[in-house]
Amino acid sequence: MIKKHLFTCSVICVLFIISKLFVFSVPDRKPLKNSSALIDFLLAKKSPNPILNFADEVVPVSNAKVNTRIRKSIKKHRFNTQSEELQVKAKKWFPIIEPILKLYGIPEDFKYIPLLESGFDSHVRSPRGAAGVWQFMPGTAREYGLKVGKGKDDRLNVRKSTIAACKYIKELYGEFNSWTLAAAAYNAGSPRVAKAINRQNKGNYFYMHLNHETAKYVYTLVAMKEVVDRPVKAGTAPLLAELQPAEVLTIN
After folding, report:
1. What confidence score (pLDDT) does residue 220 get?
2. What are the residues facing 136 on neighbouring strands?
3. Does residue 197 sit within a domain?
């Protein structure tokens, strides 16, 4: 009987010692709140590739204001009546302009500019005189090699105007060293974008104060990219579900 008690006590002591060793072997982990690791985890857990970007320049969705704006832009373009039309136009025209962009070293994402500017309708003319799929003004078109006038308008030629656009975009990138700023400058002009750069925003488009049209320009390009590249299909969740504002606001 005494032997049985001694055996039981020995087993209890061993188990107690083992439990203590296990407790003290677990490292002290501090909460990840407000850390970049938490942000990365929240953004990555929904999908293998939820990162939004334009020309590989990441949209800072961890910022609450940026997150709200990009969500609204994606929702507007994904669920409107023109989303299917965007798909059709993309399939028709992208194979024509993609090789030209690649030839001139321009990121493929710039193919969404003519989709935004003109809907790939070469006959669209703005009240100010811009024309063609890239919506070139006459003076800018001539500056980059297009013939405009005397019954000829190269702005209406998709291939020729795409070559001119590549030259213009490459020049803008050379000035700002940023593809998002090059896209913004394509819309607003380089002087206006350059003036908006300061110490606070450090030349980051998403934190800059720009006119209303230019401030939403890159957001719209990213939204169009999502609509065309990631169409909503039966049984799949749109990217909007992966960008929960509650999570982002908690982080911030």
Report:
1. 96
2. 131
3. yes
The length of the chain is 252
Range of the domain at 242: 36-251
For 9-46, the pLDDT digits (tens) are 555 555 555 555 444 444 444 444 444 444 443 444 44
CA 48 to chain centroid: 16
Structure-block tokens of residue 121: 């309708």
Report yes or no: 54 and 109 within 8 Å, Cβ to Cβ.
yes
Q: What is the pLDDT of residues 160-188, one digit of tens each?
A: 999 999 999 999 999 999 999 999 999 99
CB 137 within 8 A of CB 117: no
Q: Does residue 58 sit within a domain? A: yes
Closest by CA to 55, choosing from 178, 195, 220, 166, is 178
User: How many structural domains is the chain composed of?
Assistant: 1
- Asked if residue 55 belongs to a domain, the reply is yes
What CATH number is given to the structural domain containing 212?
A: 1.10.530.10
Task: Report the distance separating Cα 118 and Cα 59, nearest Å.
Answer: 24
- pLDDT < 50 stretches in the chain: 2-4, 6, 21-49, 233-252
Q: State the residue for tokens 């061993």.
A: 14
Predicted TM-score (pTM) of this structure: 0.73
- Domain-located, residue 14: no
AA identity, residue 132 = G
The one-letter amino acid at 84: E
Indicate the DSSP class of residue 148: E
Buried b (16+ CB within 10 A) or exposed e, 8-47: eeeeeeeeeeeeeeeeeeeeeeeeeeeeeebbeebbeeee
The dihedral through the CA atoms of 74, 80, 84, 87 has a sign that is negative
